[in-house]
Design goal:
Radius of gyration: 15 Å
Shape: globular
Mean pLDDT: 89
Helix content: 10-25%
Strand order of the largest sheet: 1-2-3-5-4
Structural class: mainly beta
Low-confidence stretches: 1-7
Number of domains: 1
């Protein structure tokens, strides 16, 4: 049996329109605190962190520095963090400020 890998089409992930862009500094604070744009915020209960492959990761696996999109819940806590790929960063740079 022969299996040929011809390559996989990458599906562009959907990023929320209401997300804010920021620079995350990871590994500085214990869970549930995160630092985005030099501001220390609390990750909401049930808050999710998505890596560049759109997999959920634990707070302890945050990279030291990353460009991110993030959403804030009604209590002012971080609900979602999306670690951006270089392609997503370029796309957002071209789209202008959020």
């Amino acid at each position: 049996m022969h299996v040929a890998a011809t390559g996989y089409a990458q599906v562009q992930r959907l990023l929320p329109q209401n997300a804010k862009r920021g620079e995350l500094v990871g590994q500085q604070y214990v869970f549930p605190l995160v630092q985005i744009n030099n501001k220390v915020m609390k990750l909401a209960p049930g808050g999710l962190i998505f890596d560049q492959n759109n997999r959920t990761i634990l707070h302890g696996y945050l990279p030291p520095y990353a460009d991110v999109l993030y959403t804030i819940d009604t209590n002012g806590q971080v609900a979602r963090i999306y670690i951006l790929t270089p392609q997503e960063q370029l796309m957002l740079d071209r789209a202008g400020p959020r």
